[in-house]
Structure to design on (521 residues):
């Protein structure tokens, strides 16, 4: 009896199936579709029934008799479990070249309490190479036939279905699928790539309530939690964390990996998708001057960027001039909406930036007298949204430092004060409370100041800020500090004052005679 060629291969495949068969599927990255059987399995939280049997039909050409039959049903021994996936681009497209890309499965570092740092590579059970002459796979599972960790992706020019795919076999006998096990899946691009490394935490949290969770691998239904460790979405719908189920089936190689999918999606995006630069038309300015700033936002992504929002934090004393605002892309004007609250200047645009193009924004500010108290340093950041999958991207801060000069506006102030006899101990001088001449006050910089015949003193051209003065009691024989009944902080021979730019501040000292001496009028 001769079997048809394809029937013969199926029959051999069933007879020679090995124990490395039980699988669950850790879905393809950015996988967007799932078969009907998989959806039904996920919906009912049970695996589909699997018949590990081959049937045949044969027609004898001589007698024209037809023969039919089925093989003996084979039971697979519980073996390894197979997470399978595919790496796609940020928008869900297949990459043009997978050379140098690698996939690794790590255990979390035991020294990291957060469980997010990489530990050692997972010790995977190595599998055999396929039987190439007979075109049968008995040990490993394509594409990672030897169950290598890390595994380097292949372009697979002869099989488009395997292009950019990967898989790892986990061994239940080593406890690698027990509830509570945590793995970190790492996607590593080649050196000098436009893409950045991705890390996804996968935690097996237990069995599905109500499911038939016997010891048989084909009836085990597990729950897992996938979490992005870099803050980027791991599904096309934008989630950074979600929960799903894993269904172990009896023989992955015979039934195919598309029937049950442990589906989560992530993106492999460029390290920098948008760039912001900030510049000004001058390096120094003074109050009254007008400064023109320019912002350049370049789209480095492979798709258009929408809903751009630029936030610019202006220094103290800078006034935005709304009529000066201009925007353009490739020489064409762009409509911009500006909002200015406090020191925060926000620009919004409903125009998309095509890949490789630059949105240029120019606006003017005018410096006020308050700018002398500021730093002259402003920062800007940009936020955008990819047009293909809606993922957010940002860049910044971009900074610009402007040196502020006083110009014709002097920011120095004056400190004035008086040393007087306080008869009613209220800290204020009345008409019958005379000043004390030749009293000495020391400033914090060591300057020595003496009072005039009326007890007055002043210090001009003082820089703004905090200043301290102390009364030298040795210069006042027969006097001591007067107690202050209203302000406790004035019961000291020193005073602290704050001088504003171009301001005037008072520093008074109240004294009283010692040993009952009378005050001469």
């Amino acid at each position: 009896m001769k079997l048809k060629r394809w029937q013969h291969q199926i029959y051999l495949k069933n007879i020679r199936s090995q124990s490395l068969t039980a699988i669950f599927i850790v879905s393809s990255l950015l996988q967007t579709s799932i078969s009907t059987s998989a959806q039904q399995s996920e919906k009912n939280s049970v695996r589909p029934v699997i018949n590990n049997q081959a049937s045949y039909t044969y027609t004898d050409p001589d007698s024209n008799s037809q023969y039919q039959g089925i093989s003996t049903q084979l039971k697979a021994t519980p073996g390894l479990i197979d997470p399978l996936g595919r790496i796609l681009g940020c928008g869900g497209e297949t990459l043009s070249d997978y050379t140098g890309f690698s996939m690794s499965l790590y255990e979390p570092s035991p020294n990291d309490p957060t469980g997010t740092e990489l530990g050692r590579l997972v010790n995977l059970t190595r599998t055999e190479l396929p039987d190439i002459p007979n075109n049968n796979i008995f040990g490993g599972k394509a594409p990672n036939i030897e169950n290598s960790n890390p595994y380097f992706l292949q372009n697979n020019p002869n099989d488009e279905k395997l292009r950019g795919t990967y898989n790892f076999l986990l061994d239940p006998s080593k406890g690698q699928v027990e509830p509570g096990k945590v793995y970190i899946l790492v996607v590593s691009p080649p050196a000098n790539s436009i893409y950045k490394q991705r890390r996804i935490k996968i935690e097996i949290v237990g069995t599905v309530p109500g499911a038939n969770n016997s010891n048989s691998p084909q009836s085990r239904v597990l729950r897992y939690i996938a979490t992005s460790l870099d803050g980027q979405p791991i599904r096309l719908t934008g989630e950074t964390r979600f929960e799903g189920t894993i269904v172990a089936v009896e023989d992955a190689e015979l039934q195919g990996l598309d029937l049950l999918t442990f589906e989560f999606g992530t993106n492999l995006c460029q390290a920098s998708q948008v760039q912001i630069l900030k510049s000004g038309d001058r390096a120094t300015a003074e109050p009254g001057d007008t400064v023109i700033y320019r912002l350049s936002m370049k789209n480095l992504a492979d798709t258009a960027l929408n809903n751009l929002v630029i936030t610019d934090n202006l220094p103290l004393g800078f006034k935005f001039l709304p009529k000066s605002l201009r925007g353009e892309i490739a020489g064409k004007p762009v409509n911009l909406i500006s909002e200015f609250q406090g020191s925060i200047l926000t620009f919004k645009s409903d125009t998309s930036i095509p890949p490789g193009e630059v949105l240029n924004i120019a606006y003017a500010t005018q410096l006020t007298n308050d700018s002398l108290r500021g730093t002259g340093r402003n920062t800007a950041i940009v936020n955008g949204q990819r047009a293909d999958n809606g993922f957010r991207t940002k860049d910044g801060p971009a900074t610009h430092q402007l040196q502020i000069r006083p110009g014709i506006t002097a920011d120095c102030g004056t400190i004035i004060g008086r040393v007087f006899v306080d008869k009613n101990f209220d800290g204020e001088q009345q008409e019958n409370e005379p000043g004390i001449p030749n009293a000495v006050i020391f400033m914090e910089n060591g300057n020595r100041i003496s009072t005039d015949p009326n007890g007055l003193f002043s210090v001009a051209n003082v820089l703004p800020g905090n200043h301290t003065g102390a009364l030298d009691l040795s210069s006042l024989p027969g006097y001591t500090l007067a107690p202050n009944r209203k302000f406790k902080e004035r019961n000291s021979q020193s005073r602290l004052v704050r001088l504003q730019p171009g301001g005037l501040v008072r520093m008074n000292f109240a004294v009283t005679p010692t040993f009952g001496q009378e005050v001469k009028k």
Notes: The domain at 274-404 is CATH 2.60.40.740 (Immunoglobulin-like). Residues 416 and 458 are 4 Å apart (CA to CA).
